Amino acid sequence: MRALEIKGVATTALTLVFAFAARAETADDFYRAHPKIAIGVPAGAGGTYDLYTRLLARHLPKYLPGAPAVIVQNVPAAGGIVLTNQLYGSAPKDGTFLAMVRGSTIQEAVNGNPAAMFDGRKLAWLGNMNSEYEACVVLRDAPIQKISDLRDHEIIVGATGPGAQSYSFPLVYNAVLGMKFKVISGYLTSPDRLLAQERGELTGNCGYDTSTVLATLYEPYKSGKIRLLFQAAKKKDPRFPDVPNMRDEAKTPEALAALDYMFSTLELGRPFAAPPETPPDRVALLRAAFERVVADPALIDEAKRLQLDLNTMTGAESAASVDGLYATPRAVVERVRAAVGGNP
User: Cα–Cα distance between 52 and 46 in angstroms, integer?
Assistant: First the structure.
């Protein structure tokens, strides 16, 4: 009996030692012990999602304990839904895997898309590098000259796939404003869609951001090879004061509510998150690192050279924006969902 008591005491003591050791490991200790972390990108190489992520990856290590290497992984499938599903489900929940999550992907979950197998409110939001304005471009000699032409003439535009702005926005314009966009999916990056436009496969391209126009599309835009047909957001980009805002085409309160629901995703232009159940102290450390890195003069200078906008949000602000999307009245959500689900 005495031996059993001693064995029980020893087992309890050993359990307490392991429990204390687990508690004693701080977030700083964890990152010093892990020389690599990964960040997923919901797009192929070469587009602005990729550029923003690689910019962050280059500067983030100096703000993490141990300066771990940051590996960028491109996951372009399904307009970002595949990557967000991975982040939510199978990705390590220890702070070694992060991802950029498109605002339009969160909207797909709110819409009830069965492929979006995640709850955006449960992701650990770290911060947003840039809130955006949507834009649609056409070639210089395209027959579409102004927004009103979109009600009279079909325009063929490219998209990555469901869940992307390039896919959803034109379909909502069709349903809510009576326009005639035909959406062709399967293009991985913004440059891919522009090349298809130059080859004559596409009439134009929507779902770009004005930051994309000023970054990866700046030369064809500056030379006049492409025209900015319209912009779209709750307010206009002040850098394009003469370009009309699609929001002004809404003639009823119902139409305006539907567009504003769509445009809410633009606020979440370039946000990053960790998986749910990531330890809170590691989330706090990552949030603090994010706030420091986006204020780093070296990152800001490089962003200027790359012509990437920085209109940042904190992790808490990003989480609040996601919560706002989920709080949208169901009638508005259903109207937009029906429009996006109606693509042939």
Answer: 10
> Looking at the domain assignment, is residue 253 inside a domain?
yes
Each residue's pLDDT tens digit, 254-287: 999 999 998 888 888 899 999 999 999 999 999 9
Closest by Cα among 281, 297, 290 to 128: 290
Which token pair is 2? Answer: 């005495």
Candidate from 10-24, 30-44, 127-141, 162-176 with smallest mean pLDDT: 10-24
- The span from the CA of 167 to the CA of 65, in Å, is 40
- Tokens representing 242 are 């003469």
Task: Say yes or no: 80 and 148 in one domain.
Answer: no
Task: Band the pLDDT of 38: cuts 50, 70, 90.
Answer: very high
Q: Is residue 16 part of a domain?
A: no
CATH number, domain with residue 70: 3.40.190.150
Structure tokens at 248: 């002004």
Handedness of CA 165, 171, 173, 175 (dihedral sign): negative
Question: In which domain, by residue range, is 92 found?
Answer: 27-131+268-329
Same domain? 187 vs 166: yes
pTM of the complete model: 0.75
